[in-house]
Design goal:
Two copies of one chain form a homodimer. Chain A is built from five helices and six strands. With about 130 residues, chain A is an alpha+beta fold. In chain A, the strands form two sheets. A three-stranded antiparallel β-sheet of chain A has the order 1-3-2. A three-stranded mixed β-sheet of chain A has the order 5-4-6. In chain A, strand 2 and strand 3 form a beta hairpin. The first copy, chain A, is globular and about 50 Å long. The N and C termini of chain A lie far apart (about 50 Å). The structure holds a DNA duplex (30 and 30 nucleotides).
DNA sequence: ATCGGTATTGACAATCATTCTCAATAAGCC
DNA sequence: GGCTTATTGAGAATGATTGTCAATACCGAT
């Protein structure tokens, strides 16, 4: 059975208010700064729960941290990330989904996961570097 | 001044012979298994050196490990990577290429690069874990 | 409203990849 | 061979994440 706790709710709303990608560590620090007594482990648990519930998505920063963000659209999707300013946009990748699954199957691979992210320079950063 | 040591050479040739993506940890274990006395820290140092010298590629697995591979100078392609044994198969992704370029352009992004890799369990690892 | 089983929490320990430290070693130049 | 100093290796340190487990609190049933 799944229970609703104020801790999970706190993580969910914190993510929604923020909009940007944020690390679990930083989120925990901010919550504590606001007076919350939530534990670090709980933040991690809440975040992974949100990801599996498709309410948030996760990606790895080049530094090896996991970053989380509230998902605006539901379902599985990918990102277009500016490598200058970090701005991200969600992109649909229906074609890529089925392609990944097909290719994996053709080579005898099971349990496919994929990493599909496009890095570039966004409009602003293209104009003023 | 830059010096040539058998350790760096060992890492370079191990990467070249292998062709697959491999983690620093696993590479170190294999070298030790072959009787080498190389240290783990040295393997890390050699790998990052190779990457900065453009002799190797690095990417992050979904598990947060850094994987390294000798740079095949020929063309651009993608990978199907076993997250158990590290076996890699190259895959054609013509469809993905054009898709990435198109999506980037639609959102005003320039200079698109993309990360498209599929992780799974290969045939052998699916059968005997 | 309260009771009880159990999902969830939080403090802390444990883990895992990676980096740092520093004395000892060895590469390259004389 | 001898000197200088980049490089090494063993272990400690770091930093993110996950596991442990007793205490807590959610929620359906009473």
């Amino acid at each position: 059975m799944k229970r609703n706790t104020w801790q999970r709710e706190a993580v969910r709303t914190a993510l929604n208010e923020r909009g940007d990608f944020i690390s679990a560590q930083k989120l925990h620090t901010e919550l504590k700064a606001e007076g919350s007594t939530i534990g670090l482990a709980t933040v991690y648990r809440a975040l992974t729960d949100l990801v599996t519930a498709d309410e948030a998505d996760a990606l790895q920063s080049p530094e090896g941290e996991n970053l989380y963000r509230a998902c605006s659209s539901d379902g599985h999707h990918h990102h277009l990330i500016c490598r200058q300013c970090g701005h991200t946009e969600e992109i649909e990748a229906e074609a890529v989904e089925s392609w990944a699954a097909k290719v994996a199957a053709e080579h005898g691979f099971t349990q496919p996961r994929h990493v599909v992210d496009v890095f570039g320079l966004c409009r602003e950063c293209t104009l003023s570097p």
